[in-house]
Amino acid sequence: MSQPSQPAKPAQSAQPAKQQNPMRAAFAALAGTSIEWYDFYAFATAAAIVFDDVFFPADMPPLLRTLSAFGTFAVGFLLRPLGGIVFGHIGDRVGRKNTLVITLLMMGIASFAIGLLPTYAQVGVLAPILLIILRLIQGIAIGGEWGGAVLIAVENAPKGRATFFGSFAQLGSSVGALLSTGAFSLMHLWGDEAFKTWGWRVPFLASAVLVVIGLLIRLKLEEAPVMDEIRAQRTEKDKLPVVEVFQTSWRTVLVGVFALATATGGYYVVTSYLLNYGTEELGLSEAMLLNGLTLAAFVELAVTPGLSWLGDRVGAHKVVIAGLIGVIVLSVPQFLLMGTGSVFLIYAGMMAMRFAMSALYGPIAAILAEGFAPRVRYTGISLSYQICNMIFGGFAPLAAVSLTALAGGHYWPAAALLMAISAVGIWCTALLRRMRDTHPAPLTSDRDAVPAGV
Q: CA torsion, points 330, 336, 338, 342, in degrees to nearest 10?
């Protein structure tokens, strides 16, 4: 006798994303971006004080060598939009976690290799060529890093607290700057000769240890529940994320580029360019200025979470605009304080400027993320941020150096540049708020449960 047929089992539904503690996600974002930005700022610092001597001929005019060194820094920004497109596509289609593992590995390997490069005296023109190649790899990696780190933090955040949790991804810039300037300051203790020959290499080689730590943290991450919704809504007719972004959200991308100009280009003006201006034009001590930038990074690290928490209470846009106004007010006084030669006043100016920049850099991540639909959010925010970096980040210090030379060593063109992009940033930040109110895009899934006590 044949057995009665058994009823067919229902198809297994895809497993939803596991619940992730928001603070754990925030610290994972912080760990990765700290390492990525450490590598990036190490290059920026070295370009300002040592690459001109190491990778270019000694008989080249000093200004041309300085511009060439900053040029190697600038080329890294050229491929950042490409990194945003490539890794944005992977992040929107596959998931945020795997993308962040790849970008971290790319950045770490390139940075370690920079620490092993031969000098111009050893291999001639091959030295700057190799430096540029590795810098381009760094650019692609950081192009895909920022967007994913921000989304890991904000998409796992409790409702109404995206600005605070998103700031942890931004804190990576402060931690990276702190570790980088601290490492270079430490290497200066061995003396100028040792620093020029081998000391500058140590911060790059040390990044290998940090990358291993970052990978261990990121490999334990889970995707945010919003990724379940993205996968469920996907169809075969879906356009590529980059195509959809440019068709439906190109205005948000454009406005985002200029809203971020001070947080990117302005940041390098008050760090890399300021270091070069102080040493080349004013004859100030490299070690003293590096210590000042380290203190300023401490200030940024300490105040960014609090200012972002305030953004969740009073409005992130208000905090960002207040920070931009602060940058405008402090632009000229910071350079005037540099001219006094007083260590106390120079450090005070550096710390005040970084306090103002913390008010705009911390909350801007959540503001920008709200402007894009979840299915293309990784691509959208990456494009805005990385196009901005390509235009303003890489070329702002280069432009500042060139304008200073044209002005006979005077600081006012750099200060005017800083004030101009900050004024435009105020207008664009207000536009982003109006766009958000017209086309709201929730950052987290409605199914997200918030663990008690978070």
A: -110
